[in-house]
Design goal:
There is one protein chain. This protein has helices at residues 4-10, 22-36, 74-90, 97-108; strands at 44-48, 55-57, 62-66. Helix 2 (22-36) crosses helix 3 (74-90). It has a three-stranded mixed beta sheet, with helices on one face. It is built from four helices and three strands. It has a single domain (2-111), classed as Zincin-like (2-Layer Sandwich). The protein is an alpha+beta fold. Bound molecules: zinc ion. Zinc ion (ZN) binds at residues 83, 87, 95.
């Protein structure tokens, strides 16, 4: 299950079409933080193994991402990142109707991330 060796060899090769390095994961977070308008409040980004969840965020702007997230598909990474940053934006951890609406809205306007270099074949929604 441990991916340390695998990562050290393949991290920069981008063999997996959708997997990213940790640096890129952090870059994705910053890109979304800018878009969502919380870049000033996002103080720390930590990437480490987490047992039970993909990510967590504190109201003081400390974001922790599960290290496994970097090997998840882009869609999954995006959902997790946006989810946490909207918590930061709203300054609470509740999944209110407003929260869910905002998450959906940000995920809908997905184009334009600088790091989404190659458009995926299924990019355009029907
Ligand atoms: Zn949540």
């Amino acid at each position: 299950m441990k991916r340390a060796l695998h990562e050290s060899i393949e991290q920069d090769d981008m063999c997996l079409p959708e997997a990213v390095s940790r640096d890129l994961l952090v870059a994705e977070v910053h890109a979304w933080a800018r878009r969502i308008g919380v870049e000033d409040r996002l103080r720390e980004i930590h990437i480490r193994p987490m047992k039970r969840k993909w990510a967590s965020i504190s109201t003081r702007g400390r974001l922790t991402l599960n290290a496994e997230l970097s090997s998840q598909p882009a869609e999954m990474r995006r959902e997790v990142i946006v989810h946490e940053l909207v918590h930061l934006k709203l300054n609470h951890g509740a999944h209110t109707k407003l929260f869910r609406t905002l998450v959906k809205a940000y995920l809908a306007q997905r184009a334009g991330l600088a790091i989404d270099k190659a458009p995926s074949p299924r990019q355009s929604p029907s």
